[in-house]
Specification:
This protein has one domain: 3-Layer(aba) Sandwich (Rossmann fold). The chain is of the alpha+beta class. About 15% of the residues lie in helices and about 20% in strands. The protein starts with 12 loop residues before the first strand and ends in a 33-residue tail after the last helix. It is globular. The strands form four sheets. The protein has an eleven-stranded mixed β-sheet, sandwiched between helices. Strands 7-10 form a two-stranded antiparallel ribbon.
Length: about 350
């Protein structure tokens, strides 16, 4: 995957040992804010193992956050392996986290690993969920996990509905054929998460997800997903109806447009702030995070969920720090340290 700006510096990327299969990104001395963000990656479709280290490095180098990125690790070889659905080592880092960023898909973690996630969520601290985190887990039917089901017809709605405010329903645009333009929801242009971003500036090659409408109480849509006719940022929106593959019926995919980024207030006050974005994946056509405005929305959201609204810059610096991304499937995190 290629990013927009080829910057070779890996300053701030801490070395890992063979027994430490994750990545640490430390803020520069003098700009450290003190907050620690823990990223949990593990999806077999949208390359979170590449995009999240890039964003963690931006947050550390340019904004003063200390970041830890965890990966799905093959138990036998120690390499990043997104098909290893039962192992994300290092989750104990959540004990000292101020923010958890979740980007997983259909994980079935053992109880001893899930306990760290459960304990963090029970603490009421903030959460950011990206793309497939609306269906972050998929456990065997005999599991007792509260996140057993992610189905939209299930009242529990799994991790997505319980934590992020919404679970996965369906692909709304045609996957791999129709890209997404993000336009502001009505009345939210002044929201801190959208600071330094123009309506329509966010674009990505991944398709729009369908949501159940209206969103549940506590959810505030920020960005609506305009389904485009093709895979280029300047493609025109789809007009009228098109066939929906899952439902086998004609639907107006841009009437209404689906929310693709929203805030959610869990019980527990300001410390329960949540931001969810279903745009943020990667595919053959590129990465949503190659878009500067997408990266800026994510950085702004980190500040916001931490209650640092006033600290969000007028136009946050989201210039990538490393190119190419060294964290890939099939490599050991310790082997790609500088």
């Amino acid at each position: 995957m290629r990013w927009l700006i080829p910057v070779l510096s890996l300053i701030g990327l801490l070395p890992a040992t063979a027994a430490q299969p994750w990545a640490e990104f430390r803020a520069k001395p003098g700009v450290e804010l003190g907050q620690r963000i823990v990223f949990i990656t593990g999806d077999d479709e949208y390359k979170s193992e590449e995009s999240m280290p890039m964003m963690a490095h931006i947050l550390a180098e340019r904004h003063g956050f200390n970041c830890t990125v965890l990966f799905a690790i093959n138990r036998e070889t120690g390499v990043i392996d997104t098909n290893q659905k039962e192992n994300i080592p290092g989750l104990e880092a959540l004990r000292s986290a101020d923010l958890m960023v979740m980007f997983t898909r259909f994980r079935a973690l053992p109880d001893e690993q899930m306990k760290f996630i459960d304990d963090y969520l029970q603490s009421g601290k903030p959460v950011i969920g990206l793309r497939t985190s609306t269906h972050a887990f998929s456990f065997p039917k005999d599991s007792t996990s509260k996140y057993l089901s992610y189905h939209f017809n299930d009242p529990s709605g799994g991790f997505g509905r319980q934590v992020l405010g919404q679970t996965w329903v369906n692909h709304w645009g045609n996957h791999g054929k129709q890209s997404t333009r993000g336009v502001f929801a009505p009345g939210v242009a002044a929201h801190p998460i959208l600071r330094g971003i123009a309506s329509g500036e966010i674009w990505g090659p991944t398709d729009v997800y369908e949501s159940t409408l209206p969103l549940p109480d506590g959810c505030t849509p920020l960005l609506m997903g305009q389904v485009l006719q093709g895979m280029k940022p300047d493609d025109a929106p789809v007009e009228g109806e098109q066939m929906n593959g899952k439902w086998k019926k004609m639907v107006k995919v841009n009437d209404p447009m689906m929310p693709i980024a929203w805030t959610y207030q869990r019980p527990g006050g300001a410390r329960g702030r949540v931001f969810t974005s279903t745009i943020g994946g990667a595919m053959a056509g590129g990465s949503d995070f190659a878009n500067e405005a997408m990266r800026r929305m994510f950085v702004n959201a980190c500040y916001w969920v931490l209650g640092m609204d006033d600290d969000i810059p007028p136009k946050a610096d989201v210039t990538p720090v490393m190119e190419p991304i060294p964290f890939k499937r099939g490599v050991k995190p310790s082997e790609v340290q500088p």
